[in-house]
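Hi team,

Below is the intake form for glutamate decarboxylase from Methanobacterium bryantii. Please confirm the fields before the structure is written into the shared record.

FORM ID: S-0412
PROTEIN: glutamate decarboxylase
ORGANISM: Methanobacterium bryantii
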Amino acid sequence: MLSKKHDLRKMSESEREHTVNTTTYGSRYFCESVPKFEMPEEGMPARAAYQIIHDELNLDGNPSLNLASFVTTWMESEADKLIQESIDKNYVDNDEYPQTEKIQDRCVNMLARLFNAPSDCKSIGTSAIGSSEAIMLGLLAHKWTWKKRRQAEGKPVDKPNIVMGADVHTVWEKFARYFDVELRLIPLKRDLYTITAEDVTENVDENTIAVGAVIGTTFTGQMDPIKEINDCLLEIKKNKGWDIPIHVDGASGGFIAPFIYPDLKWDFRLEQVKSINVSGHKYGLVYPGIGWLVFKDKTDLPEELIFNINYLGGSMPNYSLNFSKGSSTIIAQYYNFIRLGKRGYGEIIQNMLKNAKYLSKKLEESGRFEVINNDIMFPLVTARLKDVDFDVFQLSEKLREKGWIVPAYTLPEDAEDIAVVRMVIKESFGRDMIDMLFNDMVDTCSRLKELAIKKEDVEERENPSLLY
Ligand SMILES: Cc1ncc(COP(=O)(O)O)c(C=O)c1O
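The structure came back. Fields below:
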């Protein structure tokens, strides 16, 4: 409905003429600055508001050229349709939308089986906004379990700690700070960008609430030695009686390993692995934001942490950090599960992996890059520059001019002197796109090298003493 001010009958002749006889761009809203600080007293026509915001968003990067993010940028039109159809459903209204809740539970069931939960366990889990929320919830449950056990033994509970490598995502450090747990961060080593089981053994004690292990690290896409860590923790349990759980951060790897490395033991087949998170919006191939948390058994989630809500009608168990959230990504996840099946996921992931390996080989062969995750288990390529005349940050900036979004960063403690570019290869990034990216990377390196040489020449001319 038009506001009073824009009611055509009350408009001045010239304003009316503008609205009737011209396009949205001919209206006055396109020669005025848009409100940025205070909500305007009067609104504007929907088409003008749409066009102004739409045009501003053109300044954002193009999601399909974004190699920085792991997050899905494309889904099938049928999934888009389901998302649109469920965009108005608040997930937390379980009593009003019982089928949506059932669909969530089916996804949790499928994931527990995909992660090889033993058949005598009663696995439980929940959807979350992403892996970050899922990790916080998983670790909170372990903190609570540790605290209850210590209290039952009459032991102090004031010094909980959590052990993990510096290869973890920032959310792990966030958990430690927000939930008051001592962070025991194992530094990385040069040429090994994960932790070792020995590192873990040296750092755990009776106050360790959990060990964090990653399958598919954010920095290099590699994997902590989860099986070895499990074996060490079993030894410790046997010798010292400390029953320390592992939470596996499968944000990326949780949707890769089951489909292409089914024999790799990283999941609930390992005794100490009690909880796993995975991002539906990464290799689960759903738009943001959806993550999942699965506990091997319902005893791994203390009952006190589950809230029963009754004011939306019915009684609903809830384990989450926030309350309201959308339903559409949960539904889209279920769509992918039944639409693709294990085979469909496997085929897509194989393509991504082949393309990642292809890019890695080309970068190595160009002589300009050293790929640091040569083993490429997960579809991403992390490379450092061989050239010292310019750096990865300049390369990243120059590539942005061509539309490519390729992040550059330094690795965590104690490998922080290594600066890399990282390319996450997604399903919608085909072979030709890889070739185009590669060509632009190599061309950009040549241009940066020329510029560096020119700059050196100028410096030498301006400072003749250097000539002698
Ligand atoms: C290994 C790992 N863990 C956790 C996260 C956080 O996940 P989300 O963005 O789903 O909250 C990421 C994100 O990139 C990640 O790579």
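SUMMARY LINE: The two ends are 79 Å apart (CA to CA).

Thanks, M.
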